[in-house]
Amino acid sequence: MPPSSRLRPRTRRRRAGLVTAGLAALSTFAAVTGVLPASYSAAAAVCGTANAAQGRPSSASSTENAGTPASAAFDGNTGTRWSSAFSDPQWVQVDLGSSQQICRVALNWETARAQTFKIQVSANGSSWTDATSTVAGVSGTQTLDLAATGRYVRMYGLTRATQYGYSLWEFGVNVVTDGGTLPGGGDLGPNVRIFDPSMSGASIQSTLDTIFKQQESNQFGSQRYALLFKPGTYSGLNAQIGFYTSIAGLGQSPDNVTINGDITVDAGWFNGNATQNFWRSAENLAVVPVNGTDRWAVAQAAPFRRIHVRGGLNLAPNGYGWASGGYIADSKIDGTVGPYSQQQWFTRDSSVGGWTNGVWNMVFSGVVGAPAQSFPNPPYTTLAQSPVTREKPYLYVDSGGAYRVFVPSLRTNSSGASWANGATPGTSIPLTQFYVAKPSDGAATLNQALAQGLNLLFTPGVYHLNQTINVTRPDTVVLGLGYATLIPDGGVVAMNVADVDGVKLAGLLFDAGTVNSPVLLRVGPDGASAGHAANPTSIQDVFFRIGGAGPGSATTSLVVNNHNTIIDHIWAWRADHGAGVGWNSNPADTGLIVNGDNVTAYGLFVEHYKKYEVIWNGQGGRTIFFQNELPYDPPNQASWMNGSTRGYAAYKVADSVTTHEAWGLGSYCNFSTDPSVVAERGFEAPTRSTVKFHDLLTVSLGGVGTIAHVINNTGGAAQGTATVPVNVVSYP
């Protein structure tokens, strides 16, 4: 163990010496279900199912008020609407981006509908042609089949059915496609490198080294890689893992792939500082370290899943420099885990041969061999079991050489790895039931694949979305490889999930676009009401970024409306360094809002948002491990006020909540723009015996700013250059 003087506070920047259910759910857009062929099958032209208007530029003759803009009719959200002034005539229009053969429109009217109207099309947005004769408006969703061509489509309201304006929840447009059925299965693309034991070790090492050389310091680049090893034994390898690189075995069990060598993350590229070792992963293999101990010195968004380390594991960089991770799940470490300089860490449903130390916040849930509960000295928070879990889906090769995706089963009151006593229980899905997406695919294609009944497998790369991806079918799997990155363009919501059972979202990075999106990922529509206890949606290794790679803006990163959802490792980050970073350059209010009841979260990492970082409105919520840094960059105290309160808490439980419980939470401040800024408290919650917090802490990093209280008005001030945590063992 290194000397205590090396356990230094971390901040991530080094500048100036200082080291972030739409319309497709309507019956209008019918889904085609069934097992799909593995190859493309051409057919006659048909009316497509994707909403070509969603997220496209729009305008209107008028709006009732600022809360009912034209764009609300095209945002895929049936809880927002466009409404006009209270007069005739009025219109609302959308630009499809290019001339299209329009075959159908769907108008989801509010009560204030048109009495009579026309659908019109235009090539230029100024000269219009009637695509229908005068039509009588009807309440609810009204579908009209058309045969028209144009780039622009508009509803031209002639007369109103009420004394109010024209009001549309959604305005959908379908266009003609070639009628081809999208293929299931296919190749995994050029950025998935597949190795098998017949290959020479030298050639494998050469590929690993070439990719690492490109990715070692490529923090905000667009390159993405997945390194996949077929079952067998590999010797003499050192797989150094850089940015946006995933290494994984293709066996059904971790021990089906053995690397006699090392899987290494170190911080030489950043002078021994591991606090920026983001966006990389290891999964589903066994490693036998050369010197008996493997090194995995990572920070946020770097999961270590389904790994069997036949030896020890060192979580610190060479030299024990600053480190701030991290996450382990469903793994077995036969030897001792040494976190050393890691300031916080979360381990779930695993087994360890020992654990050497802790700095501020070490949390264990369902970990065999974990140290006993002892917070704050040592700072161990230990839960014997995890209340409800489902392990992440993963790609593997079956005995016949075919690719499949394995979806583990739900577990309750679990401990230890899911594969510790035999194969992980679950369901296997052939790759032919997945649309294998490439970065060239547009959102319309992805939605068509979903409508056909396919799951989605995103191959490594950056995907630009001009409309929302709508996941509407129960049990859909959406799995990303190699940090597949989704960027919403034009301010659309990147992905919506319907109020259905069992959707699995895993392995994705949502990167905000330059036009503000209200939400990056919405799980369940507003007002979702169905219970999903028997088959919840799960969100695993799903990460969010606002700025850093360039200017970005999104009001909220993740909204969870569905009941019983499992959140298993997210990092929501409003960037504090990189490109497009500044108080007004990468605005984002909140990382996570939970509205659903009985939502369970493991491994929440949420940082630098301008208001509440997490808002929990649902009943019966549980969080096991939370790590936060408050925003570095409030220009001054006046710029960062919550009414009359100084700043915003990191974790806010709504006053209306009567049941909530959380374990192992930390919030830090580093108000580097103005060190005189004060946050009134790190955590804020109603004071009730049924709203419980265990093992909380706040820290001022180097005394750069102050957090006046830990939770509500309890706990002393985190301040001063000693960087000593202020701890609260239980509240109330």
Automatic annotation (TrEMBL):
It comes from Microbispora amethystogenes. This is F5/8 type C domain-containing protein. Residues 56-68 have a biased composition (Polar residues). The keyword Signal applies. Transmembrane segments: none annotated. Residues 1-30 form the signal peptide. SUPFAM superfamilies: Galactose-binding domain-like, Pectin lyase-like. Keywords: Signal. Pfam families: F5_F8_type_C. Residues 53-74 are annotated as: Disordered. Residues 42-176 form the F5/8 type C domain.
